[in-house]
Amino acid sequence: MHDFKYKNNKFYCEDVKVEDLAKKFGTPLYVYSYRTLTDHYLKLKSAFSEINPLICYSVKANSNLSILKALIAKGAGLDIVSGGELFRAQKAGCPAQKIVYASVGKTDQEIAAAISKGILFFNVESLAELKNINRIAKSLNKITRVAIRINPDVEAKTHKYISTGKITNKFGIDLVSAYKILLLRKNFKNLKICGLHIHIGSQITKSEPFVEAIKKVSYFIRRLKDQGISLEYLNIGGGLGIIYDHEDPQTAQIYAGQILPLLKRTGLKIIMEPGRFIVGNAGILVVKVLYIKNTPKKKFIIVDGGMNDLIRPALYSAYHNIWPLTKVSGAQKADVVGPICESGDFLAKERLIAKVKEGDYLAVMSAGAYGFSMSSNYNSRLRAAEVMVSGNKAAVIRKRETLQDLIRNESRTF
Ligand SMILES: *Cc1c(COP(=O)(O)O)cnc(C)c1O
Question: Which residue range is the domain that position 154 belongs to?
Answer without folding.
Answer: 34-276
